[in-house]
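Below is a complete specimen:
___
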Amino acid sequence: MDALAGIVRQWNGLLEPYPLLRALQVIVVFLLLAALVDRLISGITRRIVSRTETHLDDQILKILHRPIFSSVALVGLIIALYEFDLSPGILLITTSLVQTILIVLWLGFGLRFSGIVLGAMRDSESRFTMVQQTTEPLLKNAAAVLVFIAGVYGILVAWDVDVTAVVASAGIIGLALSFAAQDTLANLFAGVAILADRPYQIGDYIILDSGERGQVTQIGLRSTRLLTRDDVEVSIPNGVMGAAKIVNEAAGVPNRYRIKISVGVAYGSDVDGVMEALLAVGESHPEVLRYPEARARFRTFGASSLDFELLCWIADPAERGRVSHELNIQVYKRFADLGITIPFPQQDLYIKELPAG
């Protein structure tokens, strides 16, 4: 070991008068060190990630190769600059330039890393409900902005720029923009909350407390779009959707939606016969589910009729109107065949003669 140290001291003594050779020596050593570090990290990490089933770690390892190698090599370049007798100004410029290149390299890695992670989270919606096809662009842009801000901050520090005034100006500008676009920001935050909480999804049939009913065709960051049964698209701001009472007809038990057919029969009708007729109509329709089975209920004694309901279930809420229409027709025809009277409100008017005045 002492002999090796003596050889190194002798070699450095030979290069002492030649700063260019000393700098070249440092660069070569750090290039070899960069290759060694990259080989060790890549080799060890590759053996670890080969045991996993996901491709996320493989993608990250693939993009990590260049930043690691370049970082070690650029550190060697910065150290090599100190071998020259440079003025403080030139030394600051050269070292800052190398640091800027280093920051830009890791800035590119950060952008690619965030895209890969968000893509993996999108493909696993069962675990990460926040990241979906509709929210992924926003999250990617948000991550890119954060990485870019961090990179700009690092570059300013590398060039020995006082960032206090810059940060203060950015805060004032951000405050002004937040006041100017508060409605837009409220819709954006409400859209993110809707996508995270998922009170409804694309394809669901919902009813708002304001009366709108339709199929959800798009959940954007600013608004939600409904396609009504009149084939009219309604765009509702997410701020309104977040504060509204929403009835989701497609939620609850999957592929099941209940229909109510209300009908009244005349007093004196055969109650058992009416219920059998209603059940026969419900069970005969091809789109009525066999489970749960159709049910007939005697609800109340009305002012002019005995009021019944036929309860049956269909698979698609969008077909509620058409199936109800067909069931109403069949109920009317079956009652007519069985002689069951459907009454209508009647009022008797008695005219009394006034006594002669």
Remarks:
- The beta strands are 205-208, 213-219, 223-228, 233-237, 246-248, 257-265, 295-301, 306-314.
